[in-house]
Design a protein that fits this description.
The complex is a heterodimer of chains A (about 550) and B (about 250).
Chain A lengths: L1 H20 L5 H40 L7 H23 L8 H6 L4 H11 L4 H19 L3 H34 L1 H18 L2 H9 L3 H8 L11 H9 L4 H27 L22 H16 L1 H9 L1 H14 L9 H16 L1 H4 L8 H8 L4 H30 L5 H28 L16 H29 L2 H41 L3
Helix pairs in contact in A: 1-5, 2-3, 2-6, 3-7, 3-11, 5-7, 6-7, 7-11, 7-12, 8-14, 11-12, 13-14, 13-19, 15-16, 15-19, 16-19, 16-20, 16-21, 18-22, 19-20, 19-22, 20-21, 20-22, 21-22
Chain B lengths: L2 E12 L2 E7 L2 E3 L3 E5 L6 H8 L7 E6 L8 H7 E4 L11 H11 L4 H14 L15 H13 L5 E5 L7 H16 L3 E5 L3 H7 L2 E6 L2 E7 H8 L4 H8 L16
Parallel strand pairs in B: 4-8, 4-9, 6-7, 7-8
Antiparallel strand pairs in B: 1-2, 1-3, 1-5, 9-10
Helix pairs in contact in B: 3-4, 3-5
The chains are: A mainly alpha (about 550), B alpha/beta (about 250).
Chain lengths: ~550, ~250
């Protein structure tokens, strides 16, 4: 057993160290590695003295409680807050790792070790979680404080409850990481779960704004809403069970905590068994046949490339995240502007403004794909290069595919803007859409050029596997901003000068023609860059 | 003699490392040519140069009579390639991969649909044709890549390790398919580490070692010239390895 635990400890340590070391040694990898080391160092710098301080407060507070000091009750409130935070962190960290399984299940099942022992090692290894390690000193300081205050029985009881709390956290961490590994090992289910988690997080980011808005005129209601004592469900939370148990040596909350720990251990034991015994599910096949896609004005090869590029955005986890999260700020903006702008004289323009801002935000967020379009296909780029498509067809196909991707969130922005701000003439709405298109057309050659010049290995099928090259990202975003501002400037200036929807429509058409002229000049340059760099692009796309 | 592949002094350098060192290849049309060599000998680099994925540092190439450097698109229309890394889009299904390749090669809808269905059935991928390549096993990926190489009905097939990682049934089907293809006038240029397969399947071989072509020609003539009983014996002799030379692990016993 000791040898097995030692082997697991060494395995986790090596995984941690090797993870920080990284594989490649180029400039960007070095920056990434140093930033990860800095984060680890910052956590250590914060956690170690923080843990020591908490232990000191726990000791003083427990001794005060033992000596009947009324002010010492504050330590129980502090303990609740800290344990509550740690419980939440232990539960959500594995989910936010998106299924980064702690150990290889195949390797584990090949070991000549009984299943029960393997599980015990996996569960015990959870205690190495930095959040759990950080609360071990204060959980030990509590009984020490009771003992110092002359209550050895309370000390022994709180030591036992501290052990139960650690067991609960280990079982919780194990359950969360094993269930996350089970969910995320199935690519399809994992993608849906990832998108769900990200949507919840994105929406949650707006909760403080909504809370402040709801209670802005009545601060007392805000205090009432945040008062934990008035919410009975908080009393059965593990952090409350711990403090209720140690405060006055109550066995019932301690038993409830132990029961919760055992239940969680049961669930994690089941998930552990499932991980070892069952392979990841594969998606059942459908009977779709091969179908060629055609787009007007594009050669068959360029159309195939356009459709494949569009498919990458709609089928990859990161593409879907971009497509699904892009409309959230547009919706928030539309709600916010409903209060601010509608009565300000801009009423008839609010809808088209929402659409314009939504289009610009979409163009920004799509730079993850567009400014790295020749590296996100991975081995697929080799398949493209093996075919008889010219570099011009490849660049054109990619640009058309990008337009299809751009069309999705812009369509949703139109729906949001029309639903919440339906005012404005049809001419203005059409002009806004044409302006959005002109911004895309003007920016597309730049995105192709920077992607061909600064590709960075990136797998959109995984949430954390490379990203757009920083330089390509910055240039892509800057040109997206310039193109969007130019289109918006032309639209607003024409409307301000003439007040005519027809004039705005005409000016946006002229703007699009200018953008198309620029694209006709710049796209061959991008094609030339692709032609010159085919060899490098194919290698970089595959992460070499 | 009419050659499907003809190179002179083909050389490819990566910095100071010479991966392919001036090889002269002559692959007859209608032959099944096995290109063998130890790991890192330069097989895949040679295929990448011949298929236009890498530009040679020096030397000349003719693929089906065309220079792939000056006529890249025309040359690519006539060849099918299954590269080392299989070159597949992870986010497409097998059917969509074939649709992509067919469309890039300019096949009409009816031809594309008919050939795709036939190839998917042959590769036993019909049931899985709606699954994404990301969900495929290695063998399924290999069969998808082979189907993509065959789809445009090429005159010349480049196959990098076609038999590695696939089951015996599929392996047999692919061998039959290649033999039939060669009978109809097609040319196959394949690499493989499985020398028994090369010996049984190929009529010509080229042996590459440390970037140099150390032997090339009809397989029987080469074996006779080298006085070797098998291709394996000839191969080991040519690359400077001796049979049974591995140091035994004295502690390893049943």
């Amino acid at each position: 057993m000791t040898g097995l635990l030692r082997a697991f400890a060494i395995l986790r340590w090596r995984l941690f160290v090797n993870g920080l070391r990284g594989r490649r040694r180029d400039g960007f990898e070095q920056v990434s590695r140093i930033s990860r080391l800095l984060v680890a160092a910052m956590i250590a710098v914060t956690l170690i003295p923080g843990s020591f301080m908490m232990a000191v407060f726990a000791f003083i507070g427990a001794r005060g409680l033992a000596q009947g000091n009324a002010k010492a009750d504050a330590v129980l409130v502090g303990a609740q807050a800290v344990l509550g935070l740690v419980t939440i962190l232990v539960a959500i960290t594995p989910v936010l790792r998106f299924g980064g399984a702690p150990s290889s299940s195949t390797r584990l099942s090949l070991l000549p070790v009984p299943r029960g022992l393997l599980y015990a090692a996996e569960l015990t290894a959870q205690l190495a979680d930095p959040w759990i390690l950080a609360i071990v000193p204060p959980l030990l300081a509590f009984p020490a404080g009771f003992a110092a205050g002359g209550h050895p029985a309370d000390a022994a009881f709180s030591l036992a409850v501290g052990g139960v709390m650690l067991g609960f956290l280990a079982a919780l961490g194990s359950t969360a990481s094993l269930l996350a590994a089970l969910v995320f090992r199935n690519r399809r289910v994992g993608e849906l779960a990832t998108i769900g988690v990200l949507l919840v997080l994105s929406a949650a980011a707006f909760l403080p704004t909504a809370f402040i808005r709801d209670h802005a005129n009545d601060p007392k209601s805000a205090v009432h809403a945040l008062n934990a004592a008035e919410r009975p469900w908080l009393a059965v939370m593990p952090w409350s069970l711990y403090t209720r148990a140690v405060d006055g040596r109550q066995p019932a909350p301690a038993l409830a905590l132990a029961l919760a720990a055992l239940s969680l251990a049961g669930v994690s034991r089941w998930a552990f068994g499932r991980l070892l015994d069952t392979p990841a599910d594969r998606r059942s096949g459908t009977s779709r046949t091969a179908k060629a896609r055609r787009f007007p004005g594009l050669s068959p090869a360029a159309a195939a490339i356009a459709w494949t590029t569009f498919r990458l955005a709609t089928r990859s986890v990161r593409g879907r995240v971009i497509l699904f999260t892009s409309p959230i700020p547009v919706l928030m903006l539309a709600i916010l502007w409903k209060r601010i702008l509608v009565d300000s004289g801009w009423g008839s323009l609010v809808g088209v403004l929402v659409l314009g801002v939504g289009s610009a935000l979409t163009l920004f967020s799509l730079q993850t794909i567009l400014a790295n379009q020749f590296a996100v296909d991975r081995a697929g780029l080799t398949l493209t290069f093996l075919g008889p498509a010219s570099s011009r067809e490849i660049v054109l196909g990619k640009a058309a595919g990008g337009a299809l991707i751009f069309g999705g969130p812009v369509g949703i922005a139109v729906a949001i803007a029309l639903a919440l701000h339906p005012r404005g003439t049809a001419g203005l709405w059409v002009a806004a859409l044409i302006s959005a298109l002109s911004a895309y057309v003007a920016q597309a050659p730049v995105a192709a050029l920077v992607s061909a010049s600064f590709p960075a290995p990136c797998d959109l099928m995984k949430l954390r596997a490379g990203n757009v090259h920083p330089l390509a990202g910055v240039i892509g975003m800057a040109t997206a901003l310039v193109a969007s501002l130019a289109a918006a400037g032309l639209f607003i200036a024409t409307f301000a000068m003439t007040g005519s929807a027809l004039a705005v429509l005409a000016s946006s058409l002229v703007g699009t023609a200018v953008a198309a002229g620029w694209a006709a000049l710049a796209l061959p340059l991008a094609a030339q860059a692709v032609e010159l760099r085919r060899e490098n692009l194919a290698m970089i796309a595959q992460g070499r | 003699m009419d050659h499907a592949i003809h190179t002179q002094g083909l050389r490819r350098e990566f910095g100071t490392f010479v991966a392919v060192d001036g090889i002269d290849l002559a692959v007859p049309r209608g032959s099944l040519y096995g290109f063998v060599g130890p790991n890192g000998a330069g097989k895949s680099t040679t295929i990448k140069c011949l298929t236009g994925l890498l530009k040679p540092t020096s030397g000349t190439m003719r693929i089906l009579g065309l220079d792939p450097l000056t006529h890249p698109e025309t040359t690519k229309r006539r060849v099918g390639v299954m590269p080392e890394d299989l070159a597949l889009f992870e986010h497409l299904t097998a059917a969509e991969t074939l649709a992509f390749v067919g469309q890039v090669h300019g096949l009409d809808r009816a031809t594309l649909a008919a050939r795709s269905d036939e190839l998917l059935a042959l590769m036993d991928l019909t049931e899985a044709k709606g699954q994404l390549v990301a969900d495929y096993s290695h063998g399924m990926r290999k069969k998808t890549s082979l189907a993509a190489a065959l789809l445009p009905a090429p005159k010349l097939l480049f196959l990098d390790e076609p038999f590695e990682g696939i089951d015996a049934i599929a392996s047999r089907q692919i061998k039959d398919l290649l033999l039939d293809y060669v009978k109809r006038g097609g040319t196959v240029f394949l690499t493989s580490h499985i020398l028994e397969v090369v010996e049984r399947l190929c009529d010509h071989i080229g042996v590459i070692h440390k970037g140099r072509l150390v032997a090339a020609g009809p397989i029987d003539a080469l074996r006779a010239r080298e006085g070797a009983e098998s291709l394996e014996a000839m191969f080991l002799r040519l690359v400077g390895a001796t049979e049974g030379a591995a140091t035994p692990l004295t502690w390893l016993s049943g």
